[in-house]
Amino acid sequence: MAFLKTRERTKERFSLLLLDLEEYYFEQHTAYHVTTSSTKDRKVRGSFKVCSRSVIFDPDDLEEPILKIPLRDCKKIEFVEKESNPFNEPKPSTISILCGQVIYIKESNVIAPYRIERGTKRMTFQLEVWSKTEDVVQTLLQLHRSSCLDKLGDQTAMIAANLQSRLARSSFDKNCFQSVAEKPHMECKVEMVMPLVSNPGHICITDENLYFQPLNGYPEQVIQIKLHRVRRIYKRRHGLRPLGLEVFCTENDFCSDIYLKFYNTADRDEIYYYIATFLENHMTEHTAESYMLQWQRGHLSNYQYLLHLNNLADRSCNDLSQYPVFPWVIADYTSTQLDMTNATTFRDLTKPVGALNKERLDRLLARYRGMPEPRFMYGSHYSSPGYVLFYLVRVAPEHMLCLQNGRYDHADRMFNSIGETWKNCLDGATDFKELIPEFYGNDASFLENRLSLDLGRRQNGCLVNDVVLPSWASDASDFLQKHRAALESQYVSEHLHEWIDLVFGFRQRGSEAVAAHNVFHPLTYEGGIDCDSIEDPDQRIAMLTQILEFGQTPKQLFSSPHPQRITPRFHNITRSSSINSPVSELSSASQSEDSSFEDLTEESRKMAWANMSNLKPVSSHKIHKEAVTGITVTRDGAAVFSTSQDSTLKMFSKELKDFQRSMSFSNMALSSCLMLADGKTVVCSSWDNNVYFYSIPYGRRQDTLMGHDDAVSKMCWFDDKLYTASWDSTVKVWQCAAHSLTSHKRSQFELLAELEHDAGVNTIGLNAAGTLLVSGCKDGTATIWDTSSYGTLQQAHCHSGTIHHVAFSPDSRHVLSVGADSCMNVIDVQTGMVISSVKAGEEQRCFCWDGSSVLCGGQSGELLLWDLLSNTVTTRIAAHSGAVTAMWMNELCTTVITGGEDRQMIFWKLQS
Predict the structure, then answer these.
(1) CA-based radius of gyration for the chain
(2) Neighbour tally for 276: CB within 10 Å
(3) pLDDT (tens digit, 9 = 90+) per residue, 176-228?
């Protein structure tokens, strides 16, 4: 848990949370608090801490209270000289403070609301090192002057000048280096940020470590992070400005190891890019789109995905105004059993909390319509420092006391019951809060009063103690376990994308936000106001404070609808029996309908793709005079057919390891070929605008389809329908009875549809079920079509040049495209959104893929194995001496044949 992690560094009773918000702790001195009675002086030893707006005395005796004296309430601060009369007992010099109030904290060492004693009081402190007394008094007088200035802006400016002066007079102590051999790279002034507080000091980064040295030596003299342990780094907005940097040494924890705020963006960026050079062996910088792809495919849980989105959207557990936000997912807090098969158990994730109750929403909309611009529906936010500490008060009481000036909230307004809190979020006039990650974690301490805190007594007479749980939870741990299960449930998995649209996506702003009843105060949105443009320092500070306390909307990560998760019920997609899909080397000519066979085949494919890096060449053959353009294989795997720009179709016998036939239909290049389901007919497309049908048993051309006004570039076949793509900017769909092609009669072709494009169509692909078609054009546009209505479903302008190849993933959820711009793009079929884009080092011309891994052939002739989840090349395989131009893979994904501009065909096998 975030708050516990930050406190692990120190076991001291003192904490920066005893300071006011935006206050700094400068220095400490060992001292005595001297109280005089009629009989004798009483001295209490402790630490005298000089802060920017107060003096704090922390006694060594834990039973004694911590004393805090606000400097603005001081009437007089004096240096009392030591007794120099030789005839009297020597007395050391002291600091005398005449003040209007003293705040008593942790009396009897109990965390409780502060006790304030008002009235004029003289406090006397004696430093153990007498010689420093006068200097300390001069510092206090200077800070007292700044605290008494009328304008908050002037106070802040004077304190900031004092801080910068202190930082300028000091530097990082290189004696703290772990090794004398370390080479420093950079040193600069920063603040370490923790919830509600920040601590100024210096960082020094070397070739081995990142060091932070606090100006005040608290919580320790130096904090060290080994650079080789760093796993993730994020740039952050801090106080609405791009000054933050957060460093993680773990992959999935939402608590960082250090959060730094720099004084200028250039320093922040230099440190960021330097640390990034150490990350290359560990990870690639992830984007929201790459995480989305991992989540869709089940490689990330809903919980992990939400954590990653929060991180990318500037949410941090060290910044309570931008704390990670998680959704309420359960709506049933009254049943004795939680039924996760019933949709009514769950909250409607298509709506923000404020829109869940229609009666309340109607009242809010009536107010919204009568409001002058800028209008908003909700006057409070779904995430703010107050809401975070509302949930966490039992584990972070000192944070709550810091935020609320030494007091807890009224007992009836505390987090008393999960069911009550949900009900208030539905009915309350100003309560629209969501949840925090702790509700889906493993640590139940925030639901239990393990510290035995006195949080007050409710109006019904009951003391505030543990949080009251729903009837369906036996204890706090059981609640978290069931709550986590609900987050990962089928219902939430199918609808979480709709909540993401509201909080991180396209329904966060603009007309879509209005339509979704998701409009918050304009100050909560990133870029809603430029605080630096406000000239009056008082107004600027007041505005910034208001924004930070009110809460901030996450950075917008998606600008189009978020695709749905692929949940298990969608996995059973019917596979095509068309030979257009890769065929098996099994001798059986038809797939078994038996599901166990399907499962076995699917498992075999998964194993094959997991071992694809072990692909080895078996043989190579140069049987064409120009580049190979297409490859297809008979169902029994005995014969391989290939087309080439040399205008020939060639038949190669795998058994004889030689080509047996060569056919030429015209003097123009052939662009592609495919095998029909009967295994007896090869179809070839040509640059002469025609499609040719070749009969294997008869060994001759059987038919010609003259269907286009320009070169035919690619074809697909499914259930007696032929799809032909052409540079004449059309894809044509033809009805053709397969049985007539096997006879010696001429076939009848009926044109069913003509799909118009704005540019020449270079490639097409069908999904496994034959229900969707994707076309890729010379202008870089990919279009997804419904093959039953022939209507356009999606269109994505995803490349800046010609698209070479497109193909659906096996589950039909995504399309992969490669183009002349060297990009590989993954398009979500449901939304048409490019959810992942990677710039390869060179043009990729052709590929096979399983939805997350890609085997592709590039311009240089290499085969590259790409992992799309991390956008990295995992294996490079030397193949052709020119571009790889054609690729075929069998059904079990264990055999590959490639063709290239070097006129070669190479046969490959997976080595076990």
Answers:
(1) 36
(2) 12
(3) 999 989 999 999 999 999 999 999 999 999 999 999 999 999 989 999 999 99
DSSP string, 104-171: EESGGG-----EEEEEEEEEEEEESSGGGHHHHHHHHHHHHHHHT-SSHHHHHHHHHHHHHHHHHH--
Q: Which residues of 866-875 are buried (b: 16+ CB within 10 A; e: fewer)?
A: bebbbbebeb
Kind and range of the H or E element at 54? strand 54-59
Structure letter (DSSP) for residue 365: H
In whole angstroms, what is the distance from residue 289 CA to residue 698 CA? 52
Contact partners, residue 882, CB within 8 Å, separation at least 6: 627, 861, 900, 901, 902
* DSSP symbol at 417: B
Q: Which residue type does 623 have? A: I
The number of angstroms, rounded, from the C-alpha of 743 to the middle of its chain's C-alpha atoms is 58
Query: Are the C-beta atoms of residues 652 and 633 closer than 8 Å to each other?
Result: no
Could you give the 3-state DSSP secondary structure of residue 875? strand
Percentage with pLDDT > 70 across the chain: 91
Residues of the chain with pLDDT under 50: 6-9, 281-283, 569-598, 744
What pLDDT is recorded for position 192? 96
Q: Give 564-573 pLDDT, tens digit per residue.
A: 887 654 332 2
pLDDT at site 590: 34
Backbone phi and psi for residue 230, each to the nearest 5 degrees, phi listed first: -70, 130
Q: How far apart are CA 549 and CA 415, in angstroms?
A: 19
Residue 268: its H or E element: helix 265-276
What's residue 591's pLDDT? 35
- Can you list the positions of beta strands (E) in 758-843? 761-766, 772-777, 781-786, 792-797, 803-808, 814-819, 823-828, 834-839
Report yes or no: 670 and 663 within 8 Å, Cβ to Cβ.
Answer: no
**For the chain, how are helix, strand and coil distributed in percent, rounded to 5?**
25, 35, 40
Cis, bond preceding 219 (omega within 30 deg of 0): yes
- pTM to 2 decimal places: 0.74
Residues 164/157, Cβ–Cβ less than 8 Å? no
Contacts of 471 (CB under 8 A, 6+ apart): 334, 335, 336
> What is the residue-wise DSSP string for 291-356?
HHHHHHTTSS-HHHHHHHHHHHTT--TT-GGG---B---B---S-SS--TT-GGGB--TTS-GGGS
> What are the residues facing 520 on neighbouring strands?
378
CA-wise closest residue to 253 among 4, 504, 446: 4
Angle of helix 302-312 relative to helix 288-296, nearest 10 degrees, comes to 170
Strand partners, 30: 47
Residue 425's SS3 state is helix
How far apart are the C-alpha atoms of 324 and 273, rounded to whole Å?
A: 25
Separation CA 572–CA 30 (nearest Å): 72
Strands 658-664 and 895-900: unpaired
**Which residues contact residue 585 at a Cβ distance below 8 angstroms, ignoring those fewer than 6 apart?**
637, 890, 891, 892, 894, 895
